[in-house]
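Title: Request for sanity check on Outer membrane protein assembly factor BamD prediction

Description:
We are preparing a figure and want to confirm that the structure record we downloaded matches what your pipeline produces today. Could someone re-run it with the sequence below and paste the raw structure tokens into this thread? We only need the token string, no images.
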Amino acid sequence: MTMTLRALLAALLLLTLAACSSTPDEDVTPDLPPETLYRQATEALKQGQYTNASRMFSDLDQRHPFSPWAVRAQINLIYADFKREEFAEAISHAERFIRLHPRHPEAAYAYYMRGLAHYRQVKDAYRDQDRTRKAAAAFREVVNRFPTSDYAWEAKQMLDHCIYRMAEQEMVVARYYLDRENWLAAYNRFSAVVESKEYSATPLVEEALFSLLVIAKKLGLDGEARNYAAVLGHNFPNGRFYPLAPPLVEGRGGISKSQLASLRTEVDEGSFFARFFEGLKPGVLTPGN
């Protein structure tokens, strides 16, 4: 092989390697100083460019792990991934922040956003409520660990909402059994709502008590039916169900499935909770925080 041919082959090999190492789709962030990268990332966050912001915050954290800006990047990663609806990533970032910085002033924020990311993956009361339980646990930690934090009030509202959602699932199953006249299974489910320390504080208890009254009458347990009517009247004298209770107990009336269904309420995720579902931006802190 001549020297000219060897030189030509070597040149072609170099061109091929260069082409492979810099494809048009490759996304490379310049090796910028951490403060510059953080500034660019926060600007992308303000502009709603959540994917770019997430990438830059992640690059900052990986390239400058000992920089004071890295902690701020970690907390902002939670929000950026939440906003781009990468909820599993947001949860992972939140858990990492909690593990690395349990005493940081923004630890409450990490707990709160972890709960919100879990809750955003909840579909409805007809599905498994494992995500709701995880969300409730995270919100409860905010309330218990950080009662004076900026996120405590929001966490308490969402905790109450999670408890309502879990109680609602019990009601969905209980209604299913009641409508199919599976009295014992329905009785157990409605009793779980009434007797639970958490669920008993929800408005769903009113329907659960009345349903237990109906079941007791169906089973010929007149004494139990009178007890449920008394508790219903004491706690919900002006409710929708109580006016139907005395005639039912005394055997002067009944209630159809359609009438009972019309009295039931469903969860309302209206405008009050809409702002929580949008997520909260982390507080504006200096790198030393």
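Thanks, this matches our download. Confidence is low (pLDDT under 50) at residues 7-28, 269-273, 284-289.
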